[in-house]
User: Which sequence fits this backbone?
């Protein structure tokens, strides 16, 4: 039964093929006024109005489906572009961070060309900052394991940052220039007269250069630098010539004069710093060791009491 059905379908298909060939042959063989051409024209006359009507009816439907498809495609493209934009933003942020760190490290290399032969610079990353206004400190990720000791000077590419206050095996707390415990022997430009840089009372982001001789020259915009060792009785923790800031204004003259100073370093945006460690036997090491050996009540006034607390709270010591 199945074979008969298959043979019948094949016969019908063959018959239709033969009929199509005969009709095509007859159609192309007759004249334009022949019967087949007339049938074709009549068929088109009947079907054409129906086709035009169907096109007019279906055009809005086709447009609707096209609009929906285009909208979905546009949304897909939008989402893909947003993903690509997020990736590019992250890459740009990371690239800018790497470039910034590279520039800071490169500038530190240039800074080391100063007369710092007694010091061994150790690069470190700032991992946290003190939220306190009175105690201006930061925590770095290098400590005794890298040869860092208390009272070591800390700098960055812009100039003097501060001094190591408390040190652990793998971290340290740094007192910034604007911390209430800080005092730095300094001079203006190439002048010989020296004074003492301290935080300005009531303005924690500014510095004050005090105890300058009344006739010491001071001009707005001049650079203020560390003076280094002034004399055997007044050793300085800091090497000479490190930029501290610029003169912003000069107070009234008297027996002594004071100068307002704007810090050269942006102390609220520190990321990479360099600790100037001193080798044993050098004068810098002796000064630092002498300060560290002071009695507890004097050491408190030098390094501040909250530095060790902050180091412990941040877990920098492991």
Assistant:
């Amino acid at each position: 039964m199945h074979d008969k059905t298959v043979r019948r379908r094949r016969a019908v298909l063959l018959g239709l093929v033969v009929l199509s060939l005969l009709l095509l042959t007859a159609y192309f063989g007759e004249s334009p006024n022949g019967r087949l051409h007339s049938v074709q024209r009549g068929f088109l006359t009947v079907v054409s109005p129906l086709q035009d009507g169907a096109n007019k009816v279906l055009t809005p439907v086709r447009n609707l489906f096209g609009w929906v498809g285009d909208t979905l495609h546009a949304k897909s493209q939008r989402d893909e572009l947003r993903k690509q934009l997020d990736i590019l933003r992250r890459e740009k942020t990371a690239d800018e961070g790497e470039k910034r760190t590279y520039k800071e490290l490169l500038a530190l290399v240039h800074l080391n060309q100063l007369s710092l032969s007694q010091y061994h610079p150790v690069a470190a990353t700032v991992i946290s900052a003190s939220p306190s206004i009175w105690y201006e400190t930061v925590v770095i990720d290098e400590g005794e394991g890298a040869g860092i000791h208390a009272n070591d000077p800390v700098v960055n590419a812009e100039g003097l940052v501060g001094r190591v206050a408390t040190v652990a095996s793998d971290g340290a707390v740094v007192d910034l220039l604007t911390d209430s415990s800080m005092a730095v022997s300094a001079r203006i430009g190439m002048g010989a007269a020296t004074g003492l840089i301290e935080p300005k009372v009531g303005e924690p982001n500014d510095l004050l250069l005090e105890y300058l001789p009344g006739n010491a020259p001071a001009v707005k915009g001049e650079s203020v630098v560390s003076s280094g060792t002034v004399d055997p009785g007044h050793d300085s923790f800091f090497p000479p010539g490190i930029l501290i800031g610029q003169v912003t204004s000069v107070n009234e003259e008297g027996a002594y004069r004071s100068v307002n100073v704007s810090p050269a370093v942006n102390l609220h945006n520190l990321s990479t710093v360099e600790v100037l460690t001193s080798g044993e036997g050098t004068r810098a090491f002796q000064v630092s060791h002498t300060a560290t050996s002071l009695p507890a009540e004097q050491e408190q006034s030098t390094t501040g009491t909250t530095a060790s607390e902050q180091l412990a709270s941040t877990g920098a010591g492991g």
Summary: Residues 230-235, 296-309, 311-318 have pLDDT under 50 and may be disordered. The chain has two domains: 73-111, 119-314.
